[in-house]
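> forwarded from #structure-qc
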């Protein structure tokens, strides 16, 4: 009898990109990683790295669509002896952004699942179509292989109605499926569990505030391993100040821009999602550049940073209140993992809530989860690198593996 397959290919299909990783779930190691960018343009780029040989290959030139992109990825994998036809491949795990209220768990994809992801397009018009294209293309390449959808929203489906509902007439809310779904759930799940492990506790024993600060950013309150509140809502626009999204604002700003500013709904949508946040405030959405400008005395960059921090602080305070008892605050994603000044400023002045950062520990750069609070503080403050691909692979393998499947080192 041939041994059970142990490899999982993780696909994250965006509107014009596909990110992928091939993992071996016996030890959660990466075999290959890569990215196809600018799909549909003349200047598409595929960058592929085989971890075993350390080889990185880059191909430039037009890649017309997701089908062509996935075929190119499959060819690169084949060149490294890791092709999609390999009997060692157990499944393909797909990141799917919006799973609505229906998908609370990772799910093996069949026609009914595809139809439901499609039905959710009106609440995720940018993401779900790209995710669907990725799934359909992968199915065409390996029709016999289990394909699993891992939803960004799933971790947040445990939110109580009091946190998930907006204060609007349920007739409208229910008809148009308006509620707070939350996103980045795979990251919040992974980081909240990894934080518990860092504290030497089980997820059930701890209450954690997770701050996922990337280009998109969201906070969540996790009680005993279950999400009880999160900052993103019906769409990823709500909540924290982000790279290009405004986050929270008075909804009447939209009426005002339409009635007084004469802007169309599409123009307002673009303004708030693509031209706001740090970028809208100061013209840069990269925290490194903003810090550099602040060091040079740039006022616009300073104000953008201060608004970003003010909002972050409000959410930390709010989630302390939501949780009652907080054991840890965990910073993650590009900004959270790398920007010591953001961590320092977000926690400054919160000693009354039991929160503090040790400047020396905060300045350490490392890839490992680590504590940055001084010994003896009531609430641990931690930096916990996220790994959404590993989490997707782990959840996928747990679903389709042999039953004796190792659940990776992140459960
Ligand atoms: P996403 O997955 O949302 O695109 P990431 O989690 O990769 O984003 O975060 C990207 C952001 O992280 C960048 O826009 C930048 O602001 C920030 N970032 C990355 N590296 C650093 C660094 N060394 N110092 C400060 N900020 C950083």
């Amino acid at each position: 009898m041939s041994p059970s397959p142990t490899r999982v290919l993780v696909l994250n299909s965006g509107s014009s990109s596909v990110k992928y990783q091939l993992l071996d779930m016996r030890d959660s190691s990466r075999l290959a990683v890569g990215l196809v960018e600018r799909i549909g343009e003349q200047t598409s780029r595929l960058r592929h790295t085989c971890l075993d040989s350390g080889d990185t290959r880059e191909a430039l030139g037009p890649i017309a669509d997701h089908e062509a992109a996935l075929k190119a990825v499959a060819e690169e994998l084949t060149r490294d002896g890791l092709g999609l036809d390999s009997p060692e491949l157990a499944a393909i795990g797909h990141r799917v952004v919006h799973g609505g209220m229906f998908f609370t768990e990772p799910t093996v994809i069949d026609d009914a699942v595809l139809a439901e992801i499609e039905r959710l397009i009106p609440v995720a018009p940018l993401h779900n179509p790209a995710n669907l294209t990725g799934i359909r293309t992968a199915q065409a390449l390996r029709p016999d292989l289990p394909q699993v959808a891992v939803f960004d929203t799933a971790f947040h489906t445990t939110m109580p109605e009091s946190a998930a509902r907006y204060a609007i007439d349920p007739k409208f809310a229910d008809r148009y499926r308006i509620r707070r779904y939350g996103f980045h759930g795979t990251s919040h799940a992974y980081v909240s569990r990894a934080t518990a492990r860092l504290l030497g506790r089980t997820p059930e024993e701890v209450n954690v505030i997770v701050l996922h600060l990337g280009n998109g950013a969201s906070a969540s309150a996790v009680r005993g391993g279950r999400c009880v509140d999160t900052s993103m809502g019906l769409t990823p626009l709500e909540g924290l100040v982000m790279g290009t999204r405004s986050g929270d604002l008075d909804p009447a700003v939209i009426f005002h821009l339409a009635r007084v500013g004469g802007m169309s709904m599409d123009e307002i949508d673009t303004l708030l999602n693509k031209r706001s946040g740090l970028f809208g405030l100061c013209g840069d959405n990269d925290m490194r550049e903003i810090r550099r400008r602040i060091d040079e005395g740039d006022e616009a960059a300073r104000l953008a940073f201060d608004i970003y921090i003010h909002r972050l602080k409000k959410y930390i305070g709010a989630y302390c209140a939501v949780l009652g008892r907080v054991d840890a605050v965990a910073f993650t994603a590009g900004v959270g993992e790398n920007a010591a000044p953001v961590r320092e400023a977000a926690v400054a002045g919160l000693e009354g809530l039991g929160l503090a950062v040790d400047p020396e520990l905060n300045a350490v750069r490392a890839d490992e989860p680590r504590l940055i609070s001084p010994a003896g503080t009531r609430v641990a403050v931690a930096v916990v690198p996220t790994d959404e691909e590993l989490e997707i692979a782990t959840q996928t393998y747990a679903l389709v593996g042999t039953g004796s499947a190792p659940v990776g080192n992140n459960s």
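QC bot note: The CA atoms of residues 307 and 332 lie 19 Å apart. Residues 214-216, 243, 285-288, 333-335, 338-339 surround adenosine-5'-diphosphate (CB under 6 Å).
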